[in-house]
Design brief:
Layout (H helix, E strand, L loop, with lengths): L2 H17 L8 H8 L3 H16 L13 H9 L7 H6 L8 H5 L2 H6 L2 H17 L1
Helix pairs in contact: 1-2, 1-3, 1-8, 3-4
Length: 130
Amino acid sequence: MTYKEKLVKFVKLKRAHIKKFGFVYADHKDYKNIRSWSEKRCEEIYSKMVNRIMSHDGSKELTGTTCPWCLYNYLYHTACPLCSYGKRHGECPKKDSLYKKYATKEVKESLTNEVYRDMVNKINQYQKIG
């Protein structure tokens, strides 16, 4: 499985989790966007994200450390206005953005480090099967 597909799979798993609360996180345009990134960039982003999730202190809630677009922009642009996710769904810090709609206390608290680790493990299992 390519790193592009690992990132897409991660986003799809995160979408499925957030959807349980009645919110949308990402769509086919977002998957297409990730697939337009270079494989090298996707490898760097995925590796940084997984290393953070699997580290001792882990990663939880809805932070930039578990968002491919935040990591992409941090590594290559350092500016939210340049974020392709933000261009489609509104910049996350703005009150009318999609992020502000789904970033409820309930959703944030549900995204524990264990949930993120489970997502990574599912991707690893999928890779072994697929």
